[in-house]
Specification:
Length: about 375
């Protein structure tokens, strides 16, 4: 049975008293309890409480054995809350540097504990690559993500959803470095995995990225073909009148205009506009991504779908962690940054759509970007 909310809110503030009353048999069990309580708080959107719990867990773990795996788990989770200001907005450069430091130390300890090629090391590498990306350190991020992808493909297989997460993060990294062709190939691999495991919304998101990059290269004919597939996937998943479908129609119209096919573009824009009216948000002809990213107000059902898929902040369109996307007890696009959401792990971790950073499941012995 889940703990009552009032217990969650008070548990970490009363750590010492609670610890004495419950007489934890070992420091590891106390760390596990603190991490679980912090995770629950994080899922509730209480970043301050989660950070407090993770900090206390690190303190207890280090007092027992500063080279233990408990320390690595606490550091991984602490990196996540460190990267977010307490009002749930992205933190500044100073905090990102600290998050990177935490993640690097977690990686070192995990390698010492389970070896350099373990699936858990791949989690830390994925998150480290995402943090580097958030800090605009693309070269360092690419190195971590490339290594994570190799480990995951070997350890988990070519159709692993966790491999798909890392491929998406690496594709975003390459895109930022203007390595567009390589980024397209990675997004295609990601989309293929999601189709194989029957995750059409994620497949659509990855394919939409492919289309966007084709547009950047001026290959609007290729982009239009990919967007037709995206449209089919989104209509099936969200219905023909959804805002995501409207955004896709809008982008298809942009492609047709770029190729001088005004006649073909007109019905696409007309339908996109009609969908916008039906959802209460009429639009106009815009460049890719503007439609959803610029929408004011609270996200509705369709908007939330896009938000989860892209890891986009509903207020400013920036990549950021969104606690409400987190599901039960792992991390983007809230695996972190490039697309901040939360990926699942072998121990049963968070598995919302499209993640970037991995929040590892805190159960010692259970593990969870």
């Amino acid at each position: 049975m889940p703990l009552a909310l009032i217990v969650l809110l008070s548990a970490c503030n009363q750590t010492k008293e609670s610890g004495k009353a419950r007489h934890f048999a070992t420091p590891a069990l106390e760390v596990q309890d603190l991490l679980q309580t912090g995770e629950n708080a994080f899922r509730k959107g209480d970043i301050k409480l989660a950070h407090s719990c993770f900090s206390e867990a690190l303190k207890v773990a280090e007092q027992a054995d500063r080279y233990s795996r408990s320390v690595a788990l606490a550091l991984n989770d602490l990196a996540l809350t460190t990267s977010i200001d307490r009002d749930q907005t992205p933190s500044g450069k100073k905090n990102l540097a600290q998050a990177i430091a935490y993640q690097k130390r977690a990686l070192e300890l995990e390698e010492r504990y389970s070896g350099s090629q373990s699936a858990d090391v791949a989690f830390d590498l994925n998150n480290l690559g995402a943090w580097y990306g958030a800090n605009l350190q693309w070269k360092e991020g690419a190195e971590a993500l490339e290594r994570s992808a190799k480990i995951r493909e070997k350890a988990l297989g070519p159709n692993s959803p966790l491999l798909a997460v890392t491929l998406g993060n690496l594709a975003e990294n390459y895109s930022q470095q203007k390595r567009t062709v390589e980024a397209i190939d990675l997004y295609k691999r990601q989309a293929k995995i999601y189709k194989t495991i029957d995750s059409p919304t994620e497949a659509a998101r990855a394919s939409d990225k492919v289309a966007g990059l084709y547009q950047d290269l001026g290959k609007n004919d290729e982009a239009a073909k990919v967007l037709s597939e995206v449209l089919s996937l989104r209509e099936k998943a969200f219905g023909k009148d959804s805002l995501l479908v409207a955004e896709t129609l809008n982008n298809m119209g942009v492609c047709q205009l770029a190729m001088g096919k005004n006649k073909e573009a007109e019905p696409l824009f007309a339908r996109a506009y009609k969908n916008g009216l039906q959802t209460g948000r009429p639009g106009h002809h815009q460049s890719r991504g503007e439609w959803l990213q610029k929408m004011p107000g609270k996200p509705g059902k369709d908007r939330r779908s896009a938000e989860i898929a892209w890891g986009v902040n509903p207020q400013d369109g920036q990549h950021t962690i969104h606690p409400s996307c987190v599901k039960s007890i792992k991390l983007t696009r809230l695996t972190v940054c490039l697309m901040l959401v939360i990926e699942s792990s072998k121990g049963g971790a968070h598995e919302p759509s499209s993640k970037t950073i991995s929040h590892r499941r805190h159960a010692l012995p259970v593990s969870a970007k």
